[in-house]
Amino acid sequence: MSQRLDTSFFARPAEQVASSLLGTMLCRQLASGAPLTAVILETEAYTGPQDLASHARNGARTLRNEPMWAKPGTGYVYFTYGMHYCFNVSCHQQGHPAAVLIRAAAAHEGTAQMCALRYGPPAGAKPGYSKAELADVLRGPARLCAGMNIGKEFSGVDLCQPQSSLWFMHGPGLPFDVQSGPRIGLGTKAGSWAESPLRYSIAGHRGVSGSATQNARQSLRDSDHRSPSRGR
């Protein structure tokens, strides 16, 4: 099995980490021992105090966002809209509040278990889940947390330590193109940062979240014809 991504992978600016995480594997071992793995398709970078879209804008430091200030590779999970969790990983350096939001992934191992966690048992007399349910189970940050059973218990956890039951690994090494564009769902407080091209995704993959209009606004980065096994 591929080695876990270590602290050095995350000890870089958020933009670099967000781009490099595309194509890597997000791995989760449930309490039952069942493994869940998924290929990361979409991320958003939150670069630091100067980023007005960040929870740490202008240097705000709270109990909620404290993991953003921790060593690179620390989990940051927050609850939003009174019903959803969103999963981030800290980056850059300790004391600098930067993080990457994991927006979407493609289920790889344990897909049926992810669907059960996300949707519950198959409805009615159906023997299983539909193709759309299987494809979309991790499409969006809240769905990803539900499908991989990621909650507040991972906020503040060093995801690079061997004991963590949530971690990242290098991916299968297949080439792909990276698109970048504006982040999704930002309010007016973000100002010009709302248009900054800090959302990264694997070009053309149906598992990327957001509307067709939002995804059409993204631009292809010609320099990113690369293999995900070689992080930058």
Question: What's the CATH C level?
Answer: Alpha Beta
Distance between the termini: 21 Å
Count of discrete domains: 1
Largest sheet: 9 strands, antiparallel
CATH topology call: 3-methyladenine DNA Glycosylase, Chain A
Shape: globular
In CATH terms, the superfamily is Methylpurine-DNA glycosylase (MPG)
> What are the segments in which pLDDT stays under 50 over at least 5 consecutive residues?
227-232
How many separate helices? 6
Structural class by sheet pairing and helices: alpha+beta
Order of helices and strands: HHEEEEEHHHEEEHE
Secondary-structure arrangement, i.e. CATH architecture: Roll
Computed Rg: 17 Å
Task: Calculate the mean pLDDT score and round it.
Answer: 90
Helix percentage: 10-25%
Number of beta-strand segments: 9
Tell me what portion of residues adopts beta-strand conformation. 25-35%
